[in-house]
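Input (structure):
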C-alpha cells in the first residue's frame, strides 16, 4: 500500500526465466497482494532458494491469491504464518478442497526427508553410464531444507477461502478479483484483477495466466477469457518453444499396452498426482472400454492422485462437454474395472511379486523419488520391464537420464544395468504449446498493452516472445526476479 506511484505495480519474485517458484507481488494505492507462492524445484541449489523469503512485508498483505494446487505455485504457502501473514488465502472451490492436503502432506514429506537423510535412507538416484550422462545430482551431501511444519500447514489450511469461477469479488480497497478457468488441472485458474484508477476513469485490468492448459483439452472444460483485454498480462511460457505434433497419441499408447499384455511385461508410468495421473487415467479408461486392457490390472500407487481424481468427478461442470455428459449419466471418466488404487506402502509392496502383465502409475513424475523410484529399482534391470515417460523431465534427474539413454544407474545405493525398455509418448502436456498460447492471447480480442512472459526457460520464453512480437501489438517483456512492472 502506498500514497503515490502507478495505479498497479507487479513485482516478480520467482519463475522468471525458469519453470518453478511462481510468486508475484501486487501493489496498488489501496492494496497489497501476493499471487502464488510456489516452490523452486529441481536441483539442490534450486531447493535451497526456497529458504530465502521474497523481500516484502508479509504482514501488510491483504490477501494471498493462488492459481492452482501445483507445488511450483503453492508449495511455500506453509511459510506464511512464520513470515507474519494473517490474512485469507483465496482460491477456487476445487483448489480449496485440494490445497490443505497438499500442504500437510508436503510438511510430512519435508520432515520425512530430514529423518531419512539423518538415517542415510534418503532416496538417491543418478546415472553411472554412459560417462557423458553420468551426474552426481540426486546424491545429497546437505540435508534438504524444511520450510514449514505441520502446524503451519494446518494454519494456512484454515485461512483458505473458496471463491466461484467468473464472479467478481471485492478483496481489498479498490481491488476486485475474478477466477477464470485455465483448463490446466481441476480448479486451476487465471486470476483477473480490476483495480480502481486514482482520480477515476476506467479501471486497470491485470491478468495472471497461472498455468494455461491446451485449447482442446480432452478432460477439462475450455478456458474462460476476460471480456476486457488486460492492460498487463503476466503469462506463463513453459511450452513457448514447443509445437506438439498432431500425432495420434492414443494409438501409440494402445500399441504399448497391447505389447505389454502380449509379452507379459510390467509397465511403469511416472506421473504427478494432480494432472498427469488424471490425463493418463482417462486414456486407460478409454483403452478399457475399447477392450485393450482385457483384465490387465492398472495400479495407481498414489493416495493423493486417487483423491484428486475423485475431485474431477465431483466438479462435472469443469469437465469437457462429452465427459461432463457421461459424468451426468453416472460414468466416472477416470474409473474402469481394471483400476486398483494402492493407498499405503504395504499395498504398494503387495504388487512387487506379480508375475503377470500389469501397469503401475506412481509418483514422482520426475522418477527421482516417491513410490515410482522403488518400483523402478525393483525392475529396471529386467528385460520384461518397460518405463513409459509422458511428461517433461527436469534436466539432471533420473527420468531425464533414462530418456537420454542411460545404460547403468544407481538407485538408493544399488548399481543397476538398464535392461528395461524406455518408452516415450511425446505431446501430452497439461500446458498449452506455442500455437495454443498464441491462440489463448488472441482470443482476448485487442492485444494487451503489455505482456510479461514468466514461468518458462529462457529459451522457451525467448522463442515465444518472438512469436508474440510477430503476431500482436503488445509490448512483450521478459522480466527478471526483482523487476517491477507498472501500469498507470
Ligand atoms: Zn501447474
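Output (sequence):
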Amino acid at each position: 500500500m502506498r500514497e503515490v506511484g502507478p495505479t498497479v505495480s507487479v513485482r516478480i519474485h520467482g519463475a522468471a526465466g525458469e519453470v518453478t517458484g511462481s510468486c508475484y507481488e501486487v501493489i496498488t494505492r489501496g492494496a497489497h497482494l501476493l499471487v502464488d507462492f510456489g516452490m523452486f524445484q529441481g536441483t539442490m541449489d534450486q531447493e535451497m532458494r526456497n529458504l530465502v523469503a521474497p523481500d516484502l512485508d508479509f504482514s501488510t498483505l491483504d490477501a494471498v491469491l493462488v492459481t492452482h494446487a501445483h507445488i511450483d505455485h503453492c508449495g511455500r504457502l506453509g511459510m506464511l504464518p512464520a513470515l507474519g501473514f494473517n490474512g485469507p488465502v483465496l482460491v477456487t472451490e476445487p483448489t480449496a478442497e485440494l490445497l490443505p492436503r497438499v500442504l500437510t502432506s508436503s510438511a510430512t514429506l519435508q520432515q520425512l526427508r530430514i529423518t531419512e537423510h539423518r538415517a542415510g535412507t534418503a532416496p538417491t538416484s543418478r546415472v553411472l553410464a554412459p560417462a557423458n550422462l553420468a551426474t552426481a545430482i540426486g546424491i545429497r551431501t546437505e540435508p534438504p531444507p524444511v520450510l514449514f511444519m505441520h502446524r503451519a500447514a494446518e494454519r494456512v489450511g484454515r485461512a483458505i477461502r473458496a471463491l466461484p469461477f467468473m464472479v467478481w469479488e471485492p478483496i481489498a480497497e479498490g481491488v476486485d478479483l475474478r477466477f477464470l478457468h485455465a483448463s490446466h488441472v481441476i480448479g486451476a485458474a487465471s486470476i483477473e484483477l480490476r483495480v480502481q484508477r486514482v482520480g477515476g476513469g476506467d479501471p486497470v485490468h491485470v491478468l495472471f495466466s497461472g498455468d494455461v492448459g491446451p485449447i482442446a483439452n480432452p478432460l477439462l472444460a475450455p478456458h474462460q477469457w476476460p471480456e476486457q483485454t488486460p492492460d498487463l498480462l503476466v503469462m506463463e511460457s513453459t511450452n513457448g518453444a514447443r509445437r506438439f505434433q498432431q500425432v495420434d497419441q492414443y494409438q501409440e499408447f494402445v500399441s504399448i499396452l497391447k505389447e505389454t499384455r502380449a509379452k507379459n511385461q510390467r509397465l511403469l508410468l511416472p506421473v504427478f498426482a494432480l494432472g498427469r495421473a488424471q490425463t493418463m487415467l482417462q486414456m486407460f479408461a478409454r483403452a478399457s472400454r475399447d477392450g485393450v486392457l482385457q483384465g490387465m490390472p492398472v495400479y495407481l500407487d498414489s493416495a493423493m492422485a486417487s483423491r484428486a481424481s475423485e475431485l474431477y468427478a465431483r466438479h462435472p461442470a469443469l469437465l469437457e462437454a462429452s465427459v461432463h455428459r457421461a459424468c451426468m449419466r453416472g460414468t466416472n471418466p477416470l474409473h474402469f474395472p481394471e483400476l486398483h488404487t494402492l493407498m499405503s506402502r504395504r499395498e504398494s509392496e503387495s504388487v512387487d511379486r506379480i508375475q503377470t502383465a500389469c501397469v503401475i502409475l506412481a509418483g514422482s513424475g520426475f522418477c527421482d523419488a516417491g513410490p515410482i523410484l522403488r518400483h523402478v529399482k525393483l525392475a529396471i534391470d529386467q528385460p520384461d520391464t518397460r518405463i513409459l515417460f509422458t511428461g517433461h523431465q527436469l534436466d539432471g534427474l533420473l527420468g531425464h537420464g533414462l530418456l537420454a539413454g542411460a545404460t547403468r544407474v544407481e538407485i538408493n545405493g544399488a548399481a543397476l544395468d538398464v535392461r528395461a525398455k524406455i518408452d516415450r509418448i511425446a505431446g501430452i502436456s497439461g500446458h498449452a504449446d506455442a500455437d495454443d498460447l498464441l491462440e489463448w492471447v488472441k482470443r482476448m480480442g485487442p492485444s494487451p498493452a503489455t505482456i510479461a512472459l514468466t514461468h518458462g526457460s529462457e529459451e522457451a520464453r525467448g522463442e515465444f516472445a518472438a512469436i508474440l512480437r510477430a503476431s500482436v501489438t503488445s509490448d512483450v517483456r521478459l522480466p527478471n526476479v526483482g523487476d517491477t512492472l507498472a501500469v498507470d
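Notes: Residues 180 and 190 are 5 Å apart (CA to CA). The first helix runs from residue 44 to 49.
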